[in-house]
Amino acid sequence: MTFPVDKGPPPDGFTELFHAKLEPPKWVVRNVIPVGMTMLGAPEKALKSTTTEVLTAVVTEMLPEVQSIFPPDLCVAERPGHVLYCSAEASAGAIKYNFEHDFATKIKVPNDGRYLVVDDPFLVYLSDPDGFAHLEEGLRYYEPRLLIIDPLRNFHHWDENDNAGDLVRVLGKLQRWAVKNERAILILHHARKAQPGEQRIVRAQDLRGAGALPALMDGILTITPTDDSNGSTYMTAKFRRGGHWERQFTLGAYGRTYTEPMQDIDKGVLPLVGKVQIEAIAQQLKQAKSAVLQSVERLERLGYLRRDGARLVRIR
Predict the structure, then answer these.
(1) Other C-beta atoms within 10 Å of 289: how many?
(2) Which of 42, 143, 236, 262 is paired with 314 by a 20 to 30 Å CA distance?
(3) With contact defined as beta carbons under 8 Å apart, do 210 and 162 qualify?
(4) Does residue 64 have a cis peptide bond before it, meaning omega lies within 30 degrees of 0?
(5) How many other β-carbons are positioned within 10 Å of the β-carbon of residue 311?
């Protein structure tokens, strides 16, 4: 079939795809928290709050200490800024103690206003018109890059099952604010309880409530503890734009390594990355191209490489 090319410009309100300007996914934390609204789901006592505190340290650039807690490739703040933390489970003093005393790697909280904690969750209660108006006022005044609601069920009295229409309406308004202003909202939510004797990796479909809630999200993160004694966790990420990933690591907040070990092939690949093409690296090392690509991905996770557009840049 031959398509005509001489019809002239389209009428107002239409865009010819060939001439469309590329719009890549936008991130607050690269490959973790997109612009818009993200839900972090997990069973109770499954490191949700610890993971959230680490991510807030990334956004507020409390570096380099946080890079020894989370894998380095998950600690890249593309849009850093202020954090507004609405917690029904921890006070400002408790969060500060976690940073400065509880983590194996101490994080000193700066005295520059980059981190604001709501003292009383009822001040910003989503199902109360005055509370929601107070939250909107705080967002306009403080302009946080990241808003945390921890956990969602403690900030409203609506039914989260069936269609959850009232809750979806309010969260939708917040999501639109975030997208318009290139901000992010992280909603902490509980997963459905496992059946007796059931062992499973928590995924998006395991989150409590109506399907309209996850459908609203620009990203969904889930956490499954794999070893309660040392902070080992399995994490999944699924995004409206930007694909998905799954991986297991140990939070360095507990004084143990979070990384996977470097393999022998990585030691050969690292000096060559950025100098020659992947195919040439594979030929020189006498390895399959797929093995070299896996090595490059692993070196990114370990913090040796980062992507600059289509290029790979060695960091260390």
Answers:
(1) 12
(2) 236
(3) yes
(4) yes
(5) 9
Question: Crossing angle for the helix pair 278-285 and 289-301, nearest 10 degrees?
Answer: 110
Q: How do residues 70-116 score in pLDDT, each as one tens digit? A: 787 888 899 999 999 999 988 999 999 888 887 766 788 889 999 99
Q: Residue 20 domain-assigned?
A: no
Amino acid identity for residue 35 in this structure:
V
Token pair recorded at residue 182: 């290139």
Q: What is the largest CA-CA distance in the chain?
A: 69
CA proximity to 260, closest of 302, 293, 303: 302
Residues 242 and 271 in one domain: no
Residues 88 and 198 in one domain: yes
User: In 3D, which of 30, 38, 135, 128 has the Cα closest to residue 84?
Assistant: 135
Q: Read off the pLDDT of each residue in 170-176 and give the average, rounded to a whole number.
A: 96
Structure tokens at 306: 């980062």
This prediction's pTM = 0.79
187 and 57 inside one domain: yes
Domain enclosing residue 79, as ranges: 27-254
Q: 224-241 pLDDT, tens per residue?
A: 877 655 667 888 999 999
Query: What is the CB neighbour count within 10 angstroms for residue 3?
Result: 5
Task: Identify the H or E element spanning 57.
Answer: helix 48-59
Domain identity same for 88 and 205: yes
- Asked whether residue 248 is domain-assigned, the answer is yes
Residue 39 placed within a domain = yes
Q: Which whole number is the average pLDDT over 296-300? A: 82
Extract the tokens encoding 129.
Answer: 């018109």
Determine, yes or no, domain membership for 102: yes
Domain CATH for 212: 3.40.50.300
CA distance 120 to 118: 6
Please report which residue ranges of 126-223 form alpha helices under DSSP H.
129-142, 165-180, 212-216
